Amino acid sequence: METTKWMKYLLVWAGLVAAVIAPITGRSDSGKGVIIPGRFDFKTFAISNQVSLSVEDINIEGSVVGSFFVTNSGPVKSFERFPNGNIVIQDDPRDKGLPTDPFGGITQAGGLNAANVVVGQFYDSAAGHYAGYFLRNGDYQSYSVPGYAATALFSVNDLGDFSGFVQNLTPSVVTKAFVNVNGHVTVFTIPGSQFVEATSINNYGVAVGDYQDAEGLYHGFIRDAFAHLTYPIDVPGVTTAAGLGTIPLGVNDFGAISGHFWDSAVKEHGFLRLPNGQYLQIDVPGAASTGGGGLNDFGVVVGHYNDQNGNQIGYIAVPDFDHP
Question: Is 266 contained in some domain?
């Protein structure tokens, strides 16, 4: 995209932020307002012979990460798509695909930052459990929060702070969210929930994520830099069906939030929540369903969609501010 257009996008985002007097983390917006169709310019992409492509995040440079099943039952590998369209497959060599590995190998990217540091989770075959990883210049380094059976990383900001979830498996599976800011780990949960994950953290320490309530419905939350939680965050018109709901997957430095949700007809859509609280719906033209992912500071959202033949394909959605 031309530099002048990028600059215009930044000015639009700055204007939206200036229009918001109260911080987005100061209240719940569950059930309020309406969602309107958003205008986006879409670019789509696929990986040869991939199954179930999942697109998770995009950095300020336009590089995209995600993962895919090699076959219908595994293994899982990750990829990075660079701005020039080149795609590199990522496969953590420490995952040996031992019989204890339920997928026969898993390297699942969750996010990346401006320095092209990629984070995710892999199955540590030697230890027999899931762990987080950092990928820097081709070097994989594992990360686990002490005292928990499993750790997954979903997001890393430009300062090196990161977020994800941890799990204890006994006496029952409990998943809690965590953030690591300035090297300090904070594990937290939402009252009454057995499943909470922090899917994104921006450069100001604001994190977003999702949790499951007692009825099995998913909601979003926002955790500000002072550890104040705002929840539930629900896209207007979201379904009340168990196992579905609102899943935030990205937050940028302007306070915009992206992700996906299922409407009252149980159809999946992407969404972009602007800093002023307005929700834009994301639907790839002709898609049977559209799933959302992360976003960058230009408001560019990534995700994946299913075409009418059931193929799962990646997309990059650039907001069209020329036609509001």
Answer: yes
Q: Cα–Cα–Cα angle for 54, 58, 62, nearest 5°?
A: 125
pLDDT at 135: 97
Alpha carbon distance 128, 111 (integer Å): 24
Q: For residue 209, is it within any domain?
A: yes
- Rounded to two decimals, the pTM is 0.90
The least confident of 98-112, 121-135, 292-306 is 98-112
Q: What is the residue range of 41's domain?
A: 3-319
Residue 324: inside a domain:
no
pLDDT tier for residue 134 given thresholds of 50, 70 and 90: very high
For residues 19 and 9, what is the distance between their CA atoms, to the nearest angstrom? Answer: 15
> Looking at residue 264, which CATH number applies to its domain?
2.120.10.30
Domains in the chain, number: 1
How many residues does the structure list for the chain? 324
SS3 content of the chain, % helix, strand, coil (to 5): 5, 50, 45
Write the pLDDT tens digit of every residue in 255-279.
999 999 999 999 999 999 999 999 9
What single string gives the DSSP state of each residue in 277-314? Answer: S-EEEE--TT-SEEEEEEE-TT--EEEEEE-TTS-EEE
3-state secondary structure of 15: helix
